[in-house]
C-alpha cells in the first residue's frame, strides 16, 4: 500500500472532486459517514458519553458531521469547537450550521476558557487538527491536548492524532494527542511507523473514502507499506524437478570465541528459509558446536582458533551472509576487507561486519553492488552519522544507499528497507523480537532467500516481512517475553504457510 504525503493527499482530494463532479462538502460527508459507521457498528447505541473536540478546519469539519450523525442516532454527545484561528474552512462553517440546525449547540474553547471536565469513561473524538497542521500548536492548545491525554478516556483520532505533523517530529512531544485508535482516511501516514512519531498511535485503521483510484495508482510515492498483498507476488514457488543445487549455496561467515551461537542461528535460519546448501565459515573453536547443533550445515574453519583471520574459500558461494558475531579484531577486519575485494556475489552484511565498515570507510567502495546492509539504529548511526530526526535519518540512509548501490534495512519496530530514493515499511514483528539473536536470524533468512534466486531487494522486502511474521507466530503461542531467536526460526515454516492461508471469511464461504 502506498504511503502518500499530505500534498499528494490534497491532490487526490482535488482530483476526486473534479472527476466525480462532487463538492468538497460531499466528500466530507462521505468521510464522516465512514467514521460514523465505524463507531456505530461498535457501540450499537450504547449510552456512553461521546465528547468531540473539533478544530476549525476540515478535520474539525469531519468532527462536526460525525457529531450530527451521532446525535441523529440518539447518542449522547458533547461538542467543543477548539477555536484556534479566525480562518475557519468553508466546509467546517457549513457543518457547524447544520449541527446547530440539528439543535446541537457546541461550546467554544479558546485561550481564556477553563478546561472542560472529562471522565475516564468518556469516549473522546479528536478532530482538532488533521494533516493541515503546519506550525506548533499555541501553548493553550498544548495544555488542552495534555488535558485530554490525562483523562484516561478512550481517544479516537480522526485522520491523525492532533498535534502530530505529517513531515517532521512534533515541536513539543507533550503537545500531541495520545490516540487509542486512529481512523485515517484512504491511506496510512508515514508518521505512524517511525519511532519518534509512531508512539502517539496505539492502533490505526484505514477508512476507504473512495478517493480517485486512478490518481492513487499512477502517483509514485517515496514510501510503501509492506503487507501480505505486497509480499505474496514476490514468492518464488519451488519447482517439482528441482534439486538442492537449484536453490543456491549460501555461505555464512562469522563468529568468534563466545559468539559462535550467532552463526548457528544465522545458518539455521538460512537453511530453514530454503537455501539449497549452507556452509558456515567460523574460527576453529566453532567447529564442534556447529557440527553438533546443525548437522545439515557444512563447516569450514579459519586457521585461527578464536577469530576469523583469513578467509579462504574452496567453492564459489551464491551469496554470503557476513558479520554476525565476528568481532572487531584487526586480523578479522583485514580478512573481511579482502573478502569484499575478492567476491562479486551479493552480500548480506550485519553486526560487526557493519562496524568494521564504519571504522574503515574506505572498504565501502568494495561492497558488492546490490548487497544488503542490516543495521540496528546504533550500527546505522556509525555508518551514516548522527541524525536530528527520524526524517533526517531516512534522507541520510537514502543518500547512503544511492551512493553505494546497496539496500539498507533500518531495523526496529517497523523495519524500513531503503533502496535509493524509496522506502519500504514493514508491518510484521512484535516487541518479543527485541531479544538477542533475532537480527542474526534475519541475516540468515535474507542470505537464504538470495541464494534461492530472489533478487536482493525482493529478498529483503520478502525476508523482513517473513521474519516478522515468524516472530508474530512465535509470540502468539509463547508470549513476548519467552519469544527468543531460535523460536523465530522454528516458525519460519508456519510463516510461509500463513502467507497462503485463506482469510477465515473466505474459508467459511468455501464450505
Ligand atoms: N482527502 C482527504 O483525505 C480528506 C480530508 N478531509 C479532512 O481534512 C483534513 C485536512 O483539513 P485542513 O486542510 O483544513 O487542515 P486541518 O488539519 O483541519 O487544519 C486546519 C488549518 O489550521 C491551520 N493551522 C495549521 N497549524 C496550525 C496551528 N498550529 N495553529 C493554528 N492553526 C493552524 C492551517 O491553516 P493556515 O492557518 O496555515 O492557513 C490548517 O489548514 C484531513 O486531515 C481530514 O480530516 C476530509 O474532510 C475529506 C477528505
Ligand atoms: N519492538 C520490535 N518490534 C518488531 N521487531 C523488532 C522489535 N525489536 C526488534 N525487532 C526486530 O528484531 C531484530 C533485532 O535485530 P538486532 O538488534 O540486530 O538483534 P541481534 O543483534 O541481537 O541479533 C530486527 O529484525 C528488528 O526489526
Ligand atoms: K485529528
TrEMBL record:
<feature type="domain" description="YjeF N-terminal">
    <location>
        <begin position="9"/>
        <end position="217"/>
    </location>
</feature>
<dbReference type="GO" id="GO:0016301">
    <property type="term" value="F:kinase activity"/>
</dbReference>
<feature type="binding site">
    <location>
        <begin position="130"/>
        <end position="136"/>
    </location>
    <ligand>
        <name>(6S)-NADPHX</name>
    </ligand>
</feature>
<dbReference type="GO" id="GO:0052856">
    <property type="term" value="F:NAD(P)HX epimerase activity"/>
</dbReference>
<dbReference type="GO" id="GO:0005524">
    <property type="term" value="F:ATP binding"/>
</dbReference>
<keyword id="KW-0067">ATP-binding</keyword>
<comment type="similarity">
    <text>In the N-terminal section; belongs to the NnrE/AIBP family.</text>
</comment>
<dbReference type="GO" id="GO:0046872">
    <property type="term" value="F:metal ion binding"/>
</dbReference>
<dbReference type="GO" id="GO:0110051">
    <property type="term" value="P:metabolite repair"/>
</dbReference>
<comment type="subunit">
    <text>Homotetramer.</text>
</comment>
<keyword id="KW-0808">Transferase</keyword>
<dbReference type="InterPro" id="IPR036652">
    <property type="entry name" value="YjeF_N_dom_sf"/>
</dbReference>
<dbReference type="InterPro" id="IPR029056">
    <property type="entry name" value="Ribokinase-like"/>
</dbReference>
<feature type="binding site">
    <location>
        <position position="440"/>
    </location>
    <ligand>
        <name>(6S)-NADPHX</name>
    </ligand>
</feature>
<feature type="binding site">
    <location>
        <position position="439"/>
    </location>
    <ligand>
        <name>AMP</name>
    </ligand>
</feature>
<keyword id="KW-0456">Lyase</keyword>
<dbReference type="Pfam" id="PF01256">
    <property type="entry name" value="Carb_kinase"/>
</dbReference>
<dbReference type="InterPro" id="IPR017953">
    <property type="entry name" value="Carbohydrate_kinase_pred_CS"/>
</dbReference>
<keyword id="KW-0413">Isomerase</keyword>
<keyword id="KW-0521">NADP</keyword>
<dbReference type="InterPro" id="IPR030677">
    <property type="entry name" value="Nnr"/>
</dbReference>
<protein>
    <recommendedName>
        <fullName>Bifunctional NAD(P)H-hydrate repair enzyme</fullName>
        <ecNumber>4.2.1.136</ecNumber>
        <ecNumber>5.1.99.6</ecNumber>
    </recommendedName>
</protein>
<feature type="binding site">
    <location>
        <begin position="411"/>
        <end position="415"/>
    </location>
    <ligand>
        <name>AMP</name>
    </ligand>
</feature>
<feature type="binding site">
    <location>
        <position position="325"/>
    </location>
    <ligand>
        <name>(6S)-NADPHX</name>
    </ligand>
</feature>
<feature type="binding site">
    <location>
        <position position="376"/>
    </location>
    <ligand>
        <name>(6S)-NADPHX</name>
    </ligand>
</feature>
<feature type="domain" description="YjeF C-terminal">
    <location>
        <begin position="227"/>
        <end position="499"/>
    </location>
</feature>
<keyword id="KW-0479">Metal-binding</keyword>
<keyword id="KW-0418">Kinase</keyword>
<keyword id="KW-0511">Multifunctional enzyme</keyword>
<feature type="binding site">
    <location>
        <position position="262"/>
    </location>
    <ligand>
        <name>(6S)-NADPHX</name>
    </ligand>
</feature>
<comment type="function">
    <text>Catalyzes the epimerization of the S- and R-forms of NAD(P)HX, a damaged form of NAD(P)H that is a result of enzymatic or heat-dependent hydration. This is a prerequisite for the S-specific NAD(P)H-hydrate dehydratase to allow the repair of both epimers of NAD(P)HX.</text>
</comment>
<dbReference type="GO" id="GO:0052855">
    <property type="term" value="F:ADP-dependent NAD(P)H-hydrate dehydratase activity"/>
</dbReference>
<comment type="similarity">
    <text>In the C-terminal section; belongs to the NnrD/CARKD family.</text>
</comment>
<feature type="binding site">
    <location>
        <position position="126"/>
    </location>
    <ligand>
        <name>K(+)</name>
    </ligand>
</feature>
<dbReference type="Pfam" id="PF03853">
    <property type="entry name" value="YjeF_N"/>
</dbReference>
<dbReference type="InterPro" id="IPR004443">
    <property type="entry name" value="YjeF_N_dom"/>
</dbReference>
<dbReference type="InterPro" id="IPR000631">
    <property type="entry name" value="CARKD"/>
</dbReference>
<keyword id="KW-0520">NAD</keyword>
<feature type="binding site">
    <location>
        <position position="162"/>
    </location>
    <ligand>
        <name>K(+)</name>
    </ligand>
</feature>
<keyword id="KW-0547">Nucleotide-binding</keyword>
<feature type="binding site">
    <location>
        <position position="59"/>
    </location>
    <ligand>
        <name>K(+)</name>
    </ligand>
</feature>
<comment type="function">
    <text>Bifunctional enzyme that catalyzes the epimerization of the S- and R-forms of NAD(P)HX and the dehydration of the S-form of NAD(P)HX at the expense of ADP, which is converted to AMP. This allows the repair of both epimers of NAD(P)HX, a damaged form of NAD(P)H that is a result of enzymatic or heat-dependent hydration.</text>
</comment>
Amino acid at each position: 500500500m502506498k504511503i502518500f504525503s499530505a500534498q499528494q493527499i490534497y491532490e487526490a482530494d482535488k482530483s476526486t472532486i473534479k472527476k466525480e463532479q462532487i463538492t468538497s462538502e460531499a466528500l466530507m460527508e462521505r468521510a464522516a459517514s465512514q467514521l460514523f459507521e465505524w463507531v456505530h457498528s461498535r457501540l450499537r447505541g450504547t449510552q456512553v458519553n461521546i465528547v468531540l473536540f473539533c478544530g476549525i478546519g476540515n478535520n474539525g469539519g469531519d468532527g462536526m458531521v460525525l457529531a450530527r450523525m451521532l446525535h441523529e442516532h440518539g447518542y449522547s454527545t458533547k461538542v467543543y469547537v477548539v477555536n484556534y484561528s479566525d480562518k475557519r474552512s468553508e466546509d467546517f462553517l457549513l457543518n457547524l450550521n447544520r449541527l446547530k440546525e440539528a439543535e446541537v449547540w457546541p461550546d467554544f474553547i479558546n485561550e481564556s476558557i477553563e478546561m472542560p471536565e472529562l471522565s475516564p469513561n468518556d469516549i473522546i473524538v479528536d478532530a482538532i487538527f488533521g494533516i493541515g497542521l503546519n506550525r506548533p500548536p499555541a501553548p493553550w492548545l498544548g495544555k488542552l491536548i495534555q488535558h485530554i491525554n490525562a483523562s484516561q478516556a478512550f481517544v479516537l483520532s480522526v485522520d491523525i492524532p492532533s498535534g502530530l505533523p505529517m513531515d517532521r517530529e512534533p515541536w513539543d512531544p507533550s503537545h500531541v494527542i495520545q490516540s487509542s485508535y486512529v481512523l485515517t482516511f484512504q491511506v496510512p501516514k508515514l508518521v505512524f511507523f517511525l519511532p519518534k512519531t509512531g508512539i502517539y498511535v496505539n492502533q490505526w485503521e484505514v477508512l476507504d473514502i473512495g478517493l480517485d483510484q486512478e490518481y492513487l495508482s499512477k502517483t509514485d510515492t517515496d514510501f510503501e507499506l509492506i503487507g501480505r498483498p505486497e509480499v505474496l507476488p514476490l514468492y518464488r514457488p519451488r519447482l517439482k524437478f528441482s534439486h538442492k543445487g537449484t536453490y543456491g549455496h549460501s555461505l555464512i561467515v562469522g563468529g568468534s570465541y563466545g559468539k559462535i551461537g550467532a552463526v548457528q542461528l544465522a545458518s539455521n535460519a538460512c537453511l530453514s528459509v530454503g537455501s539449497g546448501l549452507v556452509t558456515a565459515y567460523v574460527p576453529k573453536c566453532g567447529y564442534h558446536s556447529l557440527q553438533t547443533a546443525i548437522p545439515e550445515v557444512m563447516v569450514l574453519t579459519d586457521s585461527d582458533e578464536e577469530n576469523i583471520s583469513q578467509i579462504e574459500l574452496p567453492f564459489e558461494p551464491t551469496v554470503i551472509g557476513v558479520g554476525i558475531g565476528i568481532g572487531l579484531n584487526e586480523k578479522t577486519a583485514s580478512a573481511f576487507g579482502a573478502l569484499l575485494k575478492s567476491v562479486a556475489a551479493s552480500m548480506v552484511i550485519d553486526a560487526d561486519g557493519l562496524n568494521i565498515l564504519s571504522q574503515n570507510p574506505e572498504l565501502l567502495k568494495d561492497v558488492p553492488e546490490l548487497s544488503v546492509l542490516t543495521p540496528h539504529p546504533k550500527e546505522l548511526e556509525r555508518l551514516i552519522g548522527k541524525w536530528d530526526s527520524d526524517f533526517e535519518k531516512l534522507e541520510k540512509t537514502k543518500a547512503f544507499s544511492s551512493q553505494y548501490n546497496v539496500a539498507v534495512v533500518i531495523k526496529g519496530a517497523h523495519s524500513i528497507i531503503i533502496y535509493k530514493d524509496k522506502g519500504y515499511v514493514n508491518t510484521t514483528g512484535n516487541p518479543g523480537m527485541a531479544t538477542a539473536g533475532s537480527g542474526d536470524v534475519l541475516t540468515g533468512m535474507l542470505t537464504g532467500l538470495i541464494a534461492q534466486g530472489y533478487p536482493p531487494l525482493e529478498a529483503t522486502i520478502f525476508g523482513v516481512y517473513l521474519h516478522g511474521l515468524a516472530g508474530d507466530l512465535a509470540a502468539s503461542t509463547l508470549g513476548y517475553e519467552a519469544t527468543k531467536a531460535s523460536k523465530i526460526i522454528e516458525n519460519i515454516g508456519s510463516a510461509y504457510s500463513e502467507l497462503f492461508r485463506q482469510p477465515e471469511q473466505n474459508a467459511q464461504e468455501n464450505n
